[in-house]
Prior knowledge:
Elements: E1 7-11, E2 27-32, E3 41-46, E4 50-59, E5 62-66, E6 75-77, H1 79-84, E7 88-97
Antiparallel strand pairs: 1-2, 2-7, 3-4, 3-7, 4-5, 5-6
Amino acid sequence: DGKYSDCFYLEVVGxxxxxxxxxPGDLIYVHKQSxxxxxxxxxxxxxxxxxxxxxxxxxxxxxxxxPANDNYQxxxxxxxxxxxxxxxxxxxxxxxxxKF
Length: 100
């Protein structure tokens, strides 16, 4: 039916989302889309080369990339920083395949 034709799996690297039970080696299932709703967990491309998985919040003109691990600070980007770093939303995380 094509419902999942715009989805892909991505292997997680790093532990910045561990408190949402997204751990290194897990496979997240991502729906390819260029927007996220406030509070969605998404895959974001920064500087054309760094993909990150974070919970995303929008406050005024800022995009906040919120990790789920107290060892990491949120990344807060205003509109100018979003342009400078060429921030691109790759997609929304739908579910996670846990690696044992």
